[in-house]
Every structure is written in structure tokens, then in C-alpha cells.
From TrEMBL, chains A, B:
The keyword Ribonucleoprotein does not apply. It comes from Microterricola pindariensis. The keyword Transcription applies. Residues 1-51 form the HTH lacI-type domain. Keywords: DNA-binding, Transcription, Transcription regulation. This is LacI family transcriptional regulator. Pfam families: LacI, Peripla_BP_3.
DNA sequence: ATGAAAGCGCTAACAA
DNA sequence: TTGTTAGCGCTTTCAT
């Protein structure tokens, strides 16, 4: 180690580099000077090997979700993770999990190649990596679909609260025949958003039977809306579990000659580009995607470093008022 | 190395693991069996340290572009990179370059922590990392803004060809007063798309002066279209350098009471969600974002491994016909 | 508070 | 074809 030319031993240089408190200030300074002069950069591999710490965090994307890169929510989440990690000494390692390499990924994770893992299971609620828990710290994005014995760490957005806020807003503006286009019930966001709507409807003594289910696509939203209108022509508002389905509802509403928000108020969820470009601009529930990524990364680092931390976080959502409700 | 309990030396195990051809088949088999039984996973750090190869590829995102995660093009590009790398032994390392860590990133790259780097400079054409070339293999996404001495490796999409195809389509459908809403001319895509339009206009003896410039936002597209209409009310078609600006043009056209595509045909570029959800659905030029990511990753790996390769690739774009032209 | 010395787990000459 | 022998560059007891 050339930096030892600062007149001290390699061990001392190592101490300085790692911020050991047991080094004389003067020595610290001269070592730092030598480091600067020699433009020294510690070798990561050697450090890992000797310390048995990798300073690497894995971001696991289930293959089925590889396409969700196209999902702005996911993209922002990754951005949040990267942003938080940029301030730390950790590196991000993206693993796309595919059938071909499922065992490979698991072995990689358990092979001591990373200090912890982040799993994005937003859509499926699949926490199959839970088995890693106990062996390797893992933080999930999105709550597990079903509560598990070994409560995994996770960060989620307040889907229920967001849906409730949207529904309350609708009621607050005088709507009474409020329908909802729900998402798949085997996905936590789909389930929670329906649950939030239902809770508020009941609390206000309103009919909570106007439920149609879609699969988060525009087409399914249109389809669901048509069915809803057929069942109850008097609908004066609809809460869709995501923006795409809300846009689909727009289409069905237009077909039936109804105006938004004049005849029917519409609120979506996600606040993605569909909401902004829809006409009229869609009132929707915004979720802190970047913040979720940051929170996940932060939580994982806290766990890895044995610092105090929550076991899970639920981030607040906000209603974004535009023209549709 | 426990696997040596297969009755051979550590060196032989290493050879088997690394697929050396100089090992007796029988031994290979027994070693593999031992590996399986002992559930052995080679330690990455040790391997890196000894071989001086990291099997890690950095993906550098200039901070100013961190937000471009929201850009579907970028998201798909990352997906492509990850998909290609999933089939190799390389890991992906995302580095978000910020002012705070600019030197840090550079040192990290030069500190032997990665085998190569991918730089996404799509929007700016900034190839400031070119200096890394020669030290570390670097492949850029998007051509450099100005040709450089040490021609860097890059993968680009055929912006000029896409623009030309769009313009030809317009001419082919009988349009003659064709305007264009160009992007910033200090960004390669902005420049090349204008250039493609101009080339075809001239080749067909048409007026190539109907140019207005925007900054790739919806608002700038509307603004540009208004100006164009003022200069030449007889415009019967417009090619916008991206979909957002095309949507902006829709707005200006609607304000002036013109129909799309009846009075004015419109073609965009990118084929993102704006194109699909616009009404009427926007005819646009689609670029292979995922393919670009894959190509970048493939090229970099070829360079790293000293295999034969191109110095740069330009991927074809395709015209996606929808309702606006 | 600092140095000496022993590895971390693997690869890569060099021998055999 | 296989084994031997050195390290790769750093951290970390253990002395001092």
C-alpha cells in the first residue's frame, strides 16, 4: 500500500480510511495528505474479502415485473433507491429474476455477495423471498399479501388512506351514487384501495355495492364502467383504483353521453402521465414513489448497520385535485 | 476451499468453476458433484481480487437526468441493459452522478471497481466521460454532440431516418405545406430529427423554412404550433420532434379550429404513452429503447472481453401509423 | 496509539 | 493434465 509512504504502517492507513477514533489527529492528517497526493482509492474487492462486508445492496425485480420498468411508479421507486444510496457507501445491484436464473439469484444472494436486498413486489405482493429473511436483511416494497409469521420488513404507501380520501372528497362535493372500479383483489394495492373506498361509503351510510373489477388496464376500466352504468344509470361519481382504469371510464362515460365531471365525477389513483394528459385532467391520488424508494433503501441500510429502525413504514398519499372531481 | 474434498486441488476446482478445457471430464464431474453437494458458491470478492476482473458494469446516469427515470425511453433502456446482462455473468451497478459525488464517481470508475461503463447521455449528448476512454471501456447511449478525436463507442437510434420516414409518409399522403416543431439543437436527437425532416423536404423540392423550435415539452409544442400557424395558415401537416410537442400542437390546432388529421396531419416521435393516449391517437416514430439498452450492454461486454465488435451502432426506427396522419 | 503478522478465498504462473 | 506456490489489497487480532 503505497500510502504507507506517509510514514506509517498499512494498518494505520486502514484505520484512517475507516475513520477509527484511535488515531492521533496529526497522523490522520498526514495520511490523508498522502492519500490525496497519491490519488489513492481503496480496492473494493480486497476490502470486501478482508472485512466480509460487501457494501452492496441488491434490488430484485421479479421477471414478471421486468416490464414494469415501463411503469413510472417503479421507475421512480428505483430512482429513489439510487438517490438515497448515492449518499452512502453502498452500491446498487439490480437483479432481474427470471426462471432461468431463479436459483442463481438465490445463490447469489446467499453467497455473501450482498449485504442486503430490496424486493419490489408492488404488484403481486409476492414475498417469496421472505425465506431470505433471517439469513440476509430484506426490505420489501409493498406490504405482503397475507400477514406472515416472520413479519418481513416493508415500506408501503397508504393505499387505503388514499382511497378513503378520494371517496370522502367525492362525498364532500355532494356525490352520493359513488361506484368504484377496483383492481385485482390478489394484489395488495387492488385490495386496499377497494377497502378504503368501502370503509368510507359504509361510514357514511352509502351503498357500497357498486363495485366492478378491472385489471389496471385502460380497456378493463372502460369495460367495468359500462357494466356499472348498466347496473345503475344514476351513478354520479366513480373512484378507479388507478389512472389507466379511470381513463377507461372516461371512454365509457363519453360513449353513454355523460359529461365529466358534470354528470359523473371521476377520481383515479397513481397520478401518472395518464392523469395529466387525460381530458379533462384527472383528479387522482398521488403516491410518493421516489420517497418509497428512498425509505426502502434507508430502512435496509439501518437494518444492515444495526441501527434503530421501524419494522415497516406506510407513506402518506395525497389527493391531487384537477378537473374531473 | 471445502470443495477440494472432491479429491483434487483448489487449483483444479478453480479450473472447473471457470470452465477450463484442460480438465479431465471425470474430474470435472466429480468436482461438480462436490460443488453441488456442498452447495458451494464462489466468493465474488476473492475472485475479483485475484483475477483483477470485477464482472461489474456501471450504468452512469448524469444527475440532471436522474429525473429521466420518469422518461419511459430511459426506463426501457435500463430494462434492456438489465435483460442482456441477466444472461451474462456481469452485474449492473447504477451510479447516479451528482455534483456532490462527481469526483467520487470518477474515482470509483478508475479505482478498478468496474470492468466497463455505460453512459446514458441521450438528451445532452454530453460525452464528458470520454476521458475515461482508454482507461476503461465506455459505451454511450446516443451519439456525441460533436464528433470527437477519440471516437467513443456508442449506440444510437436512427433519429434522422425516423424523421425522414415520417416526412416521406406525410408527402406520400399528399401533404405539401409541412412544418416541423424541432427540439433543442444542442441535443443530438433534436438536431438529427430536424435534419431528417429538412433533407426530405429539400429532396422533394418543398419549402423547408417552416421550422419552430420547442424544448420537448407539451407547452412548448403548443407555443411553437401557434407561431407556425401565424406565419403560414396554410400548413397541412406538422412533424414534431417528440410526442409531447405533438400533443402540444394538437392543442394549438384545436384552438384554431383545425381538425387532425382532416386539416392538418400530425406525426410525433418516441411512441410513448402520450402518443397512445392522445386523441386522435398519434402517428409517431417508434424507437427501440429496450433494444438500445441491450445493444449497449452487448457492445460493452464484447469490448471488455476483447471480442470482435462494431465501434458504434445505429438502430432503426419504425413509423407507427395511428390516426393522426 | 501504532505496528506486525496472519489471513480473507480465489486465480495464475510455474512446475511436475 | 494437475498440483504447488505465491500473491491480489485490505482488515484485524494481538502485541507493544
Amino acid at each position: 500500500m503505497v500510502a504507507a509512504q506517509a510514514g506509517v504502517s498499512r494498518a494505520t492507513v486502514s484505520r484512517v480510511v475507516n475513520g477509527s477514533p484511535t488515531v492521533t489527529p496529526e497522523i490522520v492528517e498526514s495520511v490523508n495528505r498522502a492519500i490525496a497526493e497519491l490519488n489513492y482509492v481503496p480496492n473494493r474487492a480486497a476490502r470486501m474479502l478482508a472485512s466480509r462486508r460487501t457494501q452492496v445492496i441488491a434490488l430484485i425485480v421479479p421477471e414478471s415485473s421486468a416490464k414494469i420498468f415501463a411503469d413510472p411508479f417503479f421507475a421512480q421507486l428505483v430512482q429513489g433507491v439510487a438517490l438515497h444510496l448515492a449518499d452512502t457507501e453502498y452500491m446498487l445491484n439490480m437483479l432481474i429474476e427470471s426462471e432461468a436464473n431463479s436459483g442463481k439469484t438465490r445463490r447469489y444472494l446467499l453467497g455473501g455477495n450482498v449485504d442486503g436486498a430490496l424486493v419490489v413486489s408492488h404488484h403481486t405482493g409476492d414475498h417469496s423471498y421472505a425465506q431470505l429473511n433471517g439469513t440476509l436483511p430484506v426490505v420489501y416494497g409493498g406490504r405482503p399479501l397475507v400477514p406472515e409469521d416472520n413479519e418481513p420488513y416493508f415500506v408501503d404507501v397508504d393505499n387505503r388512506g388514499g382511497a378513503a380520501a378520494a371517496t370522502e372528497h367525492l362525498i364532500g362535493t355532494g356525490r352520493r351514487r359513488i361506484a368504484t372500479i377496483a383492481g385485482p383483489q390478489d394484489m395488495p394495492p387492488g385490495f386496499d384501495r377497494l377497502d378504503g373506498w368501502r370503509g368510507v361509503m359504509r361510514a357514511n351510510g352509502l351503498d357500497d355495492s357498486l363495485v366492478a373489477q378491472g385489471d389496471f388496464t385502460v380497456a378493463s376500466g372502460a369495460e367495468a364502467m359500462r357494466g356499472l352504468l348498466e347496473r345503475e344509470p344514476g351513478i354520479d361519481a366513480v373512484f378507479a383504483a388507478n389512472d389507466q382504469m379511470a381513463v377507461g371510464a372516461y371512454q365509457a362515460l363519453a360513449e353513454s353521453g355523460r359529461q365529466v365531471p358534470g354528470d359523473v365525477a371521476v377520481i383515479g389513483f397513481d397520478d401518472n402521465s395518464f392523469a395529466e394528459t387525460a381530458s379533462p385532467a384527472l383528479t387522482t391520488v398521488s403516491q410518493p414513489a421516489v420517497g418509497m424508494g428512498q425509505a426502502m433503501a434507508e430502512l435496509l441500510v439501518q437494518i444492515i448497520e444495526g441501527r434503530p429502525h421501524q419494522d415497516h413504514l406506510v407513506l402518506p398519499t395525497t389527493l391531487v385535485r384537477r378537473a374531473s372531481a
